[in-house]
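Lab meeting prep.
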Amino acid sequence: MDYAKEVHEKLLAKNIRAHLDDKSETLGSKIRDAQKEKVPYIAVVGGKEAESRSVAARSRAGTQEVLPLDAFVDKIVKEIAEKKL
């Protein structure tokens, strides 16, 4: 959970709207809820991601890619600047 908080804080520091879902529900349930809310990106972080300092990013379109944390943040900042989000 510490790494998830770090990811959340890094996004907020770049003025990116972010929500940390720390409820005790299953991952599938959390992803389903985010998809219903039409969240542009779902950043999934677990032990593997924390170890490699990365983020498993799921887009609204359903594609998933694993990116280093800084690359993910830069991607979001760039998309916001280009008004894609």
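Slide two material, second protein:
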Amino acid sequence: MLGRLSHADIEEVLYNNVMGRIGCSDGERNYIVPISYIYDGQYIIAHSISGMKIDMMRKNPNVCFEVDEIKDHTNWRSVIVWGSYEELEDEREKQEAMKLFVNKTMRLKISETAILPERTEKRVHPRSPGFIKPIIYRIHVTEKTGRFENSDNI
């Protein structure tokens, strides 16, 4: 059976997962890339280092985000979120966002940008040479939709 997810099911998929795909565009090119994230009920919170994705979202903050739970080809749930990119600038907000992120994902192997940022412009990362400055951002969710297929209950 194919169907639409309820609001509660959409929230469950977003809360229960930590990997999704973000889609962004600079007006000429579209770009879709997997990211690790957390959902706090209002925002998709993520981190990155500077690169194409961040450059595109700074240019055009309108983004799309997608998350899947796939058991097999006939048993899955998928959620799509639309919203706007917001880069966190305040050090306290960044610290709180990354604390939530690390608390949720601490049993998983996490990205090298997921370590809590220092209060200085540059920080030494223990697993990589040189300096790395994570960019902490969130997607302000404005719209959500979800679909599912479930052949177990047919």
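Talking points for slide two:
The first strand starts at residue 2 and ends at 4.
The two ends are 7 Å apart (CA to CA).
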